[in-house]
Each structure stands twice: as C-alpha cells, then as structure tokens.
Amino acid sequence: MSEERISVRQWQERFRAGAYESKDLKVQCAAGWYDWFCQDQALAGRLKKISRVVMGVTDPYILDNYYVWFKNNCPAVGGLYDDVRFEPLSGDRDGKYFVVSLDSPYESLRWTLFTERYDFGAPEYGCESVRDMVKYINSMAHELEQGIIPAFTVERWAVLKYMQRHDKTVNRPVHRNGEHRFSYTTFPGKQTKNIIVTSDLKDAPPDFVSDQAEQYGGFYLYCPEDAECPAPEQKRSKPARKKEAER
Q: Which residues are CB-contacts of 131 (< 8 A; sequence separation ≥ 6)?
C-alpha cells in the first residue's frame, strides 16, 4: 500500500482521471491495495468493482477526513472477495473506522458494512445494491462527525446481556435484522434466537409480547424462542405448601 494518505475526495479525483486504471503493481499499490491473494494483474479489475462504493460517497465529512485502502481476502471456505476500509486521516479511529465488503461468502447479502461502533463480529448493515450502501454510508456520516451513538448500538449491548443470562455465553455475533430486531446463534446448541428490543412498551411492535419481556437497563427484550422460559435466576419459585394443621 502507498505510504501517501490522500482524502477520499482526492482519491475520487484521481480515479476519475484514470490514475488507477493500469495493471502495473506500483499503480495498484498507489491506489491503496494493502494485501491480496489474487494475481497481481487482477487487482485493477477488482478495484473497478469495489471502487463503486468509494465513488458513491458524497458527504463532505467522509470525503475530507477519511482515506481508503483495500484488501483481497482468502476465506477458509468460498472464493476470494474484496473489501475497502475507510479510516480517519487523523490516525485516531475512535469508533469511526468502517469496512465495506463485496461478495463475502460469509454473508448472505452482496454488500456488507462492518463498523467499529457496532462491533466487527457482525455487519451493521447489508444490502444487495451499491446504491443502497452508499446511501447508508452518507446518512451515517453526521453521526460519525458528531460522535453520536446510535440507539441500535446500545440495544446490541442489551442483547449481549440477555445472551449472557440465558445462554451463559458472551461475544457471539449479534446480527441486526431491521429496526429494533436482532438475532444470534447459541453455542454449542446452534439455535437461532430472535430478539425484539424496545425502550417503551407503548411503542413496541404488534408481535412484541410485553408480559414475556425482560428488562435490561432501559430496554425491554422479547425473544419468541424463549417465550415462557425465563432465565434461571428470573424463574419464580413455587409457593411453599401450607403445612396442614395437626389433627
């Protein structure tokens, strides 16, 4: 990878000018390739595909405060796939670092976004089109600039607490399945559990069963798979039978 760090805005200008079209290895390293398992001659073509997400960035904060670098990955199962890393020019990630992968065999969607703020164990967002991905990236730029912590990152914390209490495990990937909806897979049972999170029972979705929800911090969590099966420490003890009067 080139030692020169240029802003995303400058990178876009050079890309448009054709600076990274050559298959020459020095040119591709200047474009930002850091590590790869494919043939050197394939980097230019791979760059053209993944560059679409870089070229779609329009928010000034990311354009002027980030640089990009690229990695070609070799998974244990499946074909090679690429990702682009957006890193602050300041060198201080501070929860603002994020990665976009393309066609990863580990993910069900074509484009996936991993962020430092959500945790790299599972994507913060995924979609099929690059248009949707750049729309999401541009929309989250304000949060990154202002240091705003999205509600779903705190909701994820509550899901981790739920997981620890019910399944006696920690650090399992927590997947986002839409607004206020998450899932994880137990270990070693490999059961998928779906969690609905709300901070206000009055605003809970229709499939949220309030009387079977549990509270973690300021959030209420409901898991259909654990319905009527509270965590051990939350089980109600059976009332003791009254001793019959001696005759």
A: 56
**What pLDDT score does 233 carry?**
57
CA distances from 38 to 64, 82, 103, 215 (A): 31, 10, 15, 49
* Nearest of 195, 193, 196, 175 to residue 185 by alpha carbon: 193
pLDDT digits (tens, 9 = 90+) for 182-211: 999 998 878 999 999 999 999 999 999 999
- Alpha carbon dihedral 185, 186, 190, 195, in 10-degree steps, equals -40
Single-letter amino acid code for the residue at 15: F
Helix axes 8-16, 43-55, angle to 10 degrees: 120
Mean pLDDT value of segment 11-17: 98
In sequence order, the 6+-apart residues with CB closer than 8 A to the CB of 225 are 191, 192, 193, 194
Selection from 50, 3, 9, 2 nearest residue 27 by Cα: 2
Which residues share a beta bridge with 181? 196
- Region for residue 190 given its phi and psi (left: phi exceeds 0; alpha: psi -120 to 50; beta: otherwise): left
HSE toward the beta carbon, residue 75, CA cutoff 13 A? 14
Q: Which two three-digit tokens encode residue 142? A: 């304000």
Buried-state track 71-104, b at ≥16 Cβ within 10 A, e below 16: bbbeeeeeeebbbbbbbbeeeeeeebbbbbbbbb
pLDDT tens per residue across span 221-230: 999 999 866 6
Neighbouring residues of 171: CB distance < 8 A, sequence distance ≥ 6: 121, 160
Q: Which of 201, 119, 207, 212 is nearest to 160 (CA)?
A: 119
DSSP labels, 27-66: HHHHHTEEE-SS-GGGHHHHHHHHHHHHHT---HHHHHHE
Cα separation, 46 vs 155, in Å, equals: 36
